[in-house]
Design a protein that fits this description.
- The protein has helices at 2-12, 17-24, 28-36, 46-53, 57-62, 74-82, 84-92, 106-119, 124-140, 148-171, 226-229, 237-249, 287-296, 305-313, 327-350, 359-362, 369-376, 382-388; strands at 70-72, 95-97, 182-195, 198-210, 214-223, 254-263, 318-324, 389-391.
- By secondary structure, the protein is an alpha/beta fold.
- It has 4 domains: 2-62, 434 Repressor (Amino-terminal Domain), CATH 1.10.260; 70-97 and 355-394, no CATH class; 106-152, no CATH class; 182-264 and 319-337, Alpha-Beta Complex (Lambda Exonuclease, Chain A).
- The structure holds iron/sulfur cluster (SF4).
- Iron/sulfur cluster is lined by residues 83, 85-86, 355-356, 362-363, 366, 368-369, 372.
Length: 396
């Protein structure tokens, strides 16, 4: 709890409430109110308070109470920007569609595996197991019959994690595995107060410290189309915001973002011909898969040296890119974030949640479509809500 943290950090530093108050330029009573929990520090005091108590801003903000606070995630912000009406249904009214079949995703299972790997001393076997368990847990909530195709995805997920770790451990020099680089945080939940009762929050996949440089945020990006992913990194709004927050929260400078691109496709095995040779047809594969197929079929890898050497040079399944932001960019990002938050505050104050009114941007994927249309026509939507939605708090 924030109040306990403030009190304990103050006592540990041997400071009286008056001394902390003097450092912050506030009254002693205010410090006493914070420590009793009757009042929460205003946003403007966080930085000075963290300095006075010898804490990082991140230590302090972690303790922010979430009750009575609007916790704004990036996905909330982007929903607000796309359609304020959808934002209201989802985050203010807290309506969740009852039928929301979520197909298990390789991406979240891979994330879970990597989280385990980096938090548990590079435990490869554990990472594969955790990814498998995560995928299977998602299947428990899947409302449709489980087809073979989905079951294959479990094996593919394990294969991807295993290959990525091999790639990471053998091939990636520097940036997140040189002996001097240290993992600072894994799946770190951050909170940053942006206005009264509004906190921006999210997760840093991984944060590393590189000597003589500073901190880097690592973002694991799982995707089918690795090439498209790296086309517009300078316009990645989510990571822009995360970078801006990281620069506020950590005591060291945050240099930029390292995108850890992981393809969710698996390498194809080369086809074995009737004459026992190997097909020259073009396939997307990697060194290990090609090599293993040769050995499994009694072929001598030395006879395929040229192909294997080429495959050693390129790995179409994993890609790492670094992305920087200038100081001006970071300032502009902060301004953009503050402006979006102001719009959310205004919309809440005036209960003004306008519709996107663009069929191209909403109709095809909006789970609130029927509700939205009925409500706009002025119909009584009580039955519709009861039948098709559930209030988040009521979820069992
Ligand atoms: S159907 Fe379209 S306009 Fe209506 S809430 Fe959904 S996204 Fe917004």
């Amino acid at each position: 709890m924030l109040r306990t943290l403030i009190r304990e950090a103050r006592l540990e530093k041997g400071l009286s409430q008056r001394q902390v108050a003097e450092q912050l330029g506030v009254s002693r009573t205010l410090i006493a109110l914070w420590e009793s929990g009757r009042l929460e520090p205003q946003m403007k005091y966080y930085k000075r308070l963290s300095e006075a108590l010898g804490l990082s801003l991140s230590d302090l903000t972690e303790e922010i109470e979430e009750d009575n606070t609007l916790m704004v995630s990036y996905s909330m912000l982007s929903t607000f920007k796309r359609c304020r009406n959808k934002f209201k249904y989802r985050y203010i009214d807290k309506l969740e569609p009852k039928e929301k079949p979520i197909a298990p995703s390789k991406g979240s299972a891979i994330h879970a595996g990597l989280e385990h790997y980096f938090s548990n001393n590079y435990d490869k076997m554990g990472a594969i197991k955790i990814a498998e368990e995560k995928f299977k847990a998602a299947l428990e909530d899947y409302p449709f019959p489980i087809e073979d195709e989905i079951l294959n995805e479990i094996e593919e997920t394990k294969n991807i994690i295993s290959r990525w770790i091999t790639y990471f451990e053998r091939e990636m020099g520097g940036y997140f595995r040189s002996p001097d680089e240290k993992v600072v945080a894994v799946e770190k939940h951050f909170k940053y107060p942006l206005a009264k009762d509004i906190v921006f929050h999210g997760y840093f996949d991984l944060v590393i410290n590189v000597p003589n440089e500073g901190l880097w945020i690592i973002d694991h990006k799982t995707t089918k189309h690795l090439d498209n992913l790296f086309d517009n990194l300078d316009l990645d709004e989510q990571m822009d915001y995360y970078l801006w927050v990281a620069n506020k929260l950590f005591r060291k400078p945050v240099v930029g973002i390292i995108y850890n691109g992981i393809s969710t496709k698996v390498p194809s095995k080369p086809k074995i011909l009737k004459n026992g040779g190997i097909s020259k047809a073009k396939i997307v594969t990697d060194y290990q898969t090609y090599y293993n197929t040769l050995v499994e079929n009694g072929l001598n890898p030395k006879d395929y040296k040229e192909i294997l050497d080429n495959l050693k040079q390129i790995n179409p399944f994993f890609k790492v890119e670094m992305s920087f932001r200038t100081e001006t960019e970071i300032e502009n990002i902060g301004r953009d974030l503050a402006a979006s938050i102001k719009e959310i505050i205004l919309a809440k104050e005036h209960n003004l949640f306008t519709r996107t009114r663009s069929t191209g941007r909403c109709i095809w994927d909006c789970a609130y479509k029927n509700l939205c249309i009925a409500e706009y026509k002025g119909e009584d939507v009580t039955d519709l809500i009861n039948e098709f939605f559930i209030k988040k708090e009521e979820k069992k």
